[in-house]
Amino acid sequence: xxxxxxxxxxxxxxxxxxxxxxxxxxxxxxxxxxxxxxxxxxxxxxxxxxxxxxxxxxxxxxxxxxxxxxxxxxxxxxxxxxxxxxxxxxxxxxxxxxxxxxxxxxxxxxxxxxxxxxxxxxxxxxxxxxxxxxxxxxxxxxxxxxxxxxxxxxxxxxxxxxxxxxxxxxxxxxxxxxxxxxxxxxxxxxxxxxxx
Length: 196
Description:
196 residues; mainly alpha; three-stranded antiparallel beta sheet; 9% strand; rod-shaped
């Protein structure tokens, strides 16, 4: 470094001055130069310290940036793992949904087959009853006109209920077929019919 060389030169000059016993003017000149060298040395030291502080501050910023980057990378890794787990769960759920859909499709096909079978049976029953139902309706209408009984078809099992619209007053019917014989009930109902 130039400052140290200058200092060495000043020191050697002082030694030679003292050794040769030169004039006082040369001594002052050398002392003045020594002061300049010391001032330059102090300035250089201040500059070096300032640069060192700046370098340390930059190193600190770089270290903090590196730590921040590592933290972000860690967070990214955690988020990536969570996304992979969610993707795996979604894949498993998708497989379950597909299996359920396949099962429901099979069940739907079976139900369509059952429905088609029921429709065939219904057509067959319709064909079988096309002839018998009109005659049964005719007989029921005829019996209603003769007996003048309005039946309660929603009565509980084993009960014969209805209203007989007789010649003067409507009369309720309430017969328990579990306690009365079929013959008695038939005779009683026909006894209500006005044969006049």
